[in-house]
């Protein structure tokens, strides 16, 4: 769906929205539906028409294992922004799977749209033995305040699931029934229940057309993935009068008298200034924070009187478990989950859920090469010689396996952060705190105890900083301007017309996927803005 907007600078929009991921597209759709003028600004391309898009498989498979060019990354919805891991004191290039283009990272996501638990809104109760964490006692809003917006978001994204028997909120909500379980999933559910676990159907934003591959990690060519582009952006442009400009690189914001006065961007080869009554950032927890740090006062940034912009970065600590049922997995694979360790004996850990298909062995082997570079540099030079053996070993491990992903909630620490790099990219510093390291060891032990009656293998990825699919926390909301960037309605404490609705607003990461909470919160903020305007 190409834009025919010739000059977006000639209008003072009601809302200018930076980014079309879950937060940006959802709030833009709702505001346009309510009659406001909305301009979406997207740094990447539009994939709504399907033209010239690399889709339907992992990029590594589509490029025959070759290192993708910048153009190929752009065509596949993958960010080509330079990112550097500076956590070890050495500069290390990162190759994180983050989205750019219509739908943002949701174009690549695994479609899990799960509600947070009520306990997630009161984190101080569960981590009192970690005083060094930059943890609020409570969120500025409650679960009950967000509950009706959860239901609305579930309807918009057409979430299919069954109720988690361990979730305290058993109201119907907005979910609809999922497709039948495969034989392998039925077997695993039965065996988990015999173990005393409480498996349920994973909440999936998917239409499941014939031949659905679940498309985890790449753009869906069948358009059955209910990402923010298909669910919100496209109907906003088609039916509600919203406009969009793509390949628009926004590099800074101007401000005066506690308001954003202009957005500075490069579009169609020219520097432009965009204006709007209200500016909404939804560029993702990394790029939103870097944009603010590149604006305003040098070395301080914009809206950063609390010195929290870019800090408190969280990403979830992710491991994989390969479980081998008797029935070989086939067809749909992302079907089941259990939350028996979400809140266990007063301790918060996280979720265990079907992951779906992993990347091809050639891609996983590249992850192994990156680990060699980090931990055993001399051996990295031998990688070309041992690569065929590694890929063969990976192929054997994946054969007959049902892959589960285990997400551990990581806590916010001021030292974990993103900053602009000197080259114009992003520097990331993230170290797992010793407190979270202990929790991670316990989480791994408990999962192993629960599945040890199965034949299984574990792939520990939690220590790898390139795992950024759930990155959040870099512009947290809260009631105290001294310790947070945004207020309870996601407005910047120091700027009357700046709102942030991507994952950067989350003050804690919870123990499950953040997509539905980001969407629900965007709808909540949209209602606030509609009433305000």
List the helices and strands and how they pair.
Layout: E1 12-18, H1 22-33, E2 38-41, H2 59-62, H3 70-75, E3 83-85, E4 92-94, H4 143-156, E5 159-160, H5 183-194, E6 200-201, E7 204-205, H6 228-239, E8 243-245, E9 248-256, E10 259-267, E11 270-281, H7 285-293, E12 317-323, E13 336-338, E14 343-344, E15 347-348, E16 350-354, H8 361-375, H9 377-380, H10 383-398, E17 402-408, E18 417-420, E19 426-429, H11 434-451, E20 456-460, E21 498-500, H12 515-532
Parallel strand pairs: 1-2, 1-11, 2-8, 3-19, 11-21
Antiparallel strand pairs: 3-4, 5-7, 6-13, 9-10, 10-11, 12-17, 12-20, 13-16, 14-15, 16-17, 18-19
Helix pairs in contact: 1-6, 1-12, 4-12, 8-10
């Amino acid at each position: 769906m190409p834009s025919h907007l010739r000059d977006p600078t000639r209008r003072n929009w009601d809302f200018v929205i930076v980014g079309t991921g879950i937060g940006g597209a959802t709030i833009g759709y709702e505001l346009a539906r309510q009659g406001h003028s909305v301009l979406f600004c997207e740094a990447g391309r539009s994939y709504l028409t399907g033209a010239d898009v690399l889709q339907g498989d992992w990029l590594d498979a589509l490029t025959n294992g070759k290192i993708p060019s910048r153009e190929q990354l752009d065509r596949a919805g993958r960010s080509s922004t330079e990112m550097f891991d500076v956590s070890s004191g050495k500069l290390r290039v990162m190759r994180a799977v983050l989205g750019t283009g219509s739908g943002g990272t949701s174009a690549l996501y695994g479609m899990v749209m799960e509600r947070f638990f009520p306990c997630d809104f009161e984190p101080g109760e569960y981590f009192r033995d970690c005083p060094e964490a930059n943890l609020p006692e409570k969120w500025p809003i409650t679960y009950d305040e967000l509950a009706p917006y959860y239901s609305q978001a579930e309807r918009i994204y057409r979430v299919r699931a069954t109720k988690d028997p361990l979730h305290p909120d058993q109201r119907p909500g907005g979910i609809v029934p999922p497709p039948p379980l495969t034989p392998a999933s039925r077997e695993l559910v039965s065996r988990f229940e015999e173990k005393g676990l409480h498996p349920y159907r994973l909440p999936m934003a998917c239409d499941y057309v014939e031949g659905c591959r679940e498309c985890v990690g790449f753009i869906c060519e069948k358009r059955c993935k209910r990402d923010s582009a298909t669910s919100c952006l496209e109907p906003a442009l088609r039916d509600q009068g919203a406009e969009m400009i793509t390949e628009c690189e926004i590099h800074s914001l101007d401000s005066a008298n506690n308001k954003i006065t202009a957005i500075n961007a490069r579009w169609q080869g020219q520097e432009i200034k965009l204006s709007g009554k209200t500016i909404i950032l939804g560029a993702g927890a990394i790029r939103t924070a870097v944009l603010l740090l590149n604006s305003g006062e040098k070395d301080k940034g914009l809206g950063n009187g609390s010195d929290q912009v870019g800090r408190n970065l969280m990403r979830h600590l992710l491991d994989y478990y390969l479980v081998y049922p008797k029935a070989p997995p086939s067809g749909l694979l992302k079907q089941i989950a259990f939350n028996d360790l979400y809140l266990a004996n007063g301790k918060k850990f996280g979720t265990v859920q079907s992951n779906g298909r992993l990347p091809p062995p050639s891609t996983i082997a590249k992850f192994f090469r990156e680990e060699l570079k980090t931990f055993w540099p001399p051996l990295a030079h031998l990688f070309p010689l041992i690569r065929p053996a590694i890929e063969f070993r990976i192929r054997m491990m994946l054969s007959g396996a049902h892959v589960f992903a285990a997400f551990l909630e990581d806590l916010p620490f001021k030292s974990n952060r993103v900053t602009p790099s000197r080259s114009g990219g992003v520097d990331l510093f993230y170290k797992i705190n010793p407190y979270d390291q202990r929790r991670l060891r316990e989480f791994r032990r408990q999962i192993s105890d629960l599945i040890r009656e199965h034949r299984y293998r574990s792939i520990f990825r939690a220590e790898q900083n390139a795992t950024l699919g759930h990155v959040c926390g870099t512009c947290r909301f809260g009631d105290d301007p001294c310790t947070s960037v945004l207020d309870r309605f996601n407005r910047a404490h120091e700027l009357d017309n700046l709102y942030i609705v991507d994952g950067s607003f989350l003050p804690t990461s919870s123990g499950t996927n953040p997509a539905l909470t980001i969407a629900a919160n965007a709808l909540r903020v949209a209602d606030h803005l509609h009433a305000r305007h």
